[in-house]
Every structure is written in C-alpha cells, then in structure tokens.
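Q: What changes when NDP is included in the input?
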Amino acid sequence: MEQVNINEKVVVITGASSGIGEAIARLLSALGARVVLGARRTDKLHTITTEIINAGGHAAYKQLDVTNPESVQSFAAFAIDQFDQIDVWINNAGLMPLSMINEYKVNEWNQMIDVNIKGVLHGIAAALPIFEAKDQGQFINITSVADRWVGPTSTVYSGTKFAVRAISDGLRQEVSNNIRVTLVAPGATESELAETISNPELKKLAIEKFRIDLLPAAAIARAVAFAINQPADVDVNEIVVRPTAQKSF
Ligand code: NDP
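A: The predicted holo structure follows.
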C-alpha cells in the first residue's frame, strides 16, 4: 500500500488485546503509525506491545475499561503523554453475547449497551475535544454487518450496532470539515468474540454454523489502513467487509 497518510500518525485503539483490535495495532505499526493499545487484559496488551516494539514499531498500552468514562479520559491523556497528539481514535472494543430475548439475559443486554454503545460515546467524548482543538482527526468505529441486519439471537447485539451506525453518521455531519468519521462493518472474522456467548448450545451452533469461512482479523485491519491512508480531504464513510462465502447475513 502506498503510504500517503499513515506514517507517524498516533492511533488509539480500544479493545486491542485480541482479534481485530490486535490486528489493527500490528498492521498500522508496521505501516509506521504510533499505536496506543487499551483493553482490560494488560498481560495480553503487554505481550502485543512488546512484540511491536521489538519489531521496530512505536507502541504503548494502558489498562482501559470503555464502560467507565474516567478510564477512557485517562486513556486519551496517556496517549497524549506518550506521543504528544492523537490523530486517529478507533472505537473497536465490543462484546457479542447472543441470546433469544425470552432468555431474559438482562445483564448481558446491559453489558452490550455499556461496551458497544456507551463505550463508543465515551471514546468520542474523550477524543473530539482533542480533534476540535487542532481541527483535525479521524474516528473509526468498528460496527458489524449486524449494524444493518438483524435475526434471532442477534436482536440486542444488532440494536447496539445499529445505534453505533447512527451515531457515526450523525457525528460525521456535526463535526468540522476537517474531521473524518469512518465506519468499518466486518462480517464473520477470526477473534475471541464468540467466547462471550453464555448459552453453550447457542455458542456451539454459532461456531459450527455461522462462524465458518472466517476472515482473518488482518483483513479488517487492511480496511482500516485504507481509510486512514486517504488524503485528509477524503473521508471513507463506510466499509463493509464480508468473507466472500458469507451470503445470508
Ligand atoms: P475479541 O473478543 O477478540 O475482541 C474484543 C476486544 O474488546 C478485546 O480486546 C476485549 O479486551 C475488548 N473489550 C471488551 N470489553 C471491554 C471493556 N469494557 N473495555 C475495554 N475493552 C474491552 O473480538 P473482535 O476482535 O471480533 O471484536 C472487535 C470488534 O469487532 C467488536 O466491536 C465486535 O463487535 C466487532 N465485530 C467482530 C466480528 C467478528 O466476527 N469477529 C464481526 C463483526 C464485528 P479485554 O477483554 O482485554 O478488555
């Protein structure tokens, strides 16, 4: 990929301890970005960050809980402290505990709302003042094809992702002409996401029936890199990336 606009950028990534967030951190750092990784599992963040630095990249990590606005604010302050600026904020952290509504897994619904929706809003609240102060910056919100598709067991998960799609497009319209907002909607991708399904039968079904022909997480990282790499006056608004064999949702 010809490098127009990634090199030396400071890119903050929530949910960078596994799956898509980890792949984004690894690819962008290889392309010259300085990456700041956040998640709850610091052992994983430590390993990934150390590997990036050993490979010649620039990276730092901090424990982060996106459901807590203060934690997200101190994560942003940490990024500035480490690298003096933030150029791109990637709201990636997410959970997918699928279930039928009449299982009444109210705690899981609330967890998804807290991480998938409120976590994104907390990220926007932390980064937008920084972007507005220099009239420059980019949000990348990782939704899902479930931001435009809903089916049984996906009702609340899709609801959270529909919300983030709406929030992304509203944000894009409200911010200045120099701040970019990009939504990346993955189809089925290799990661730990299905681990959050608590019903063992549903988890088995999801893995055996739907989580086949998975994209490598690096495929989503390439889509993110494409959006960042455009010149500043080009805002890639939405990218949907499915496995070629994923036809039905
Ligand atoms: P993973 O489970 O591998 O990654 C989820 C990440 O979110 C982990 O790093 C996890 O870290 C982090 N996370 C969860 N809760 C919190 C929290 N409260 N605060 C901070 N970080 C948190 O799954 P994916 O990589 O697949 O998920 C990344 C995004 O991609 C999600 O938004 C998901 O909805 C979306 N997506 C994934 C698809 C797929 O098929 N894999 C398809 C469509 C969308 P930790 O536990 O250490 O906090």
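Observations recorded in class: Strands lie at 10-14, 34-39, 58-63, 88-91, 137-142, 179-186, 238-241.
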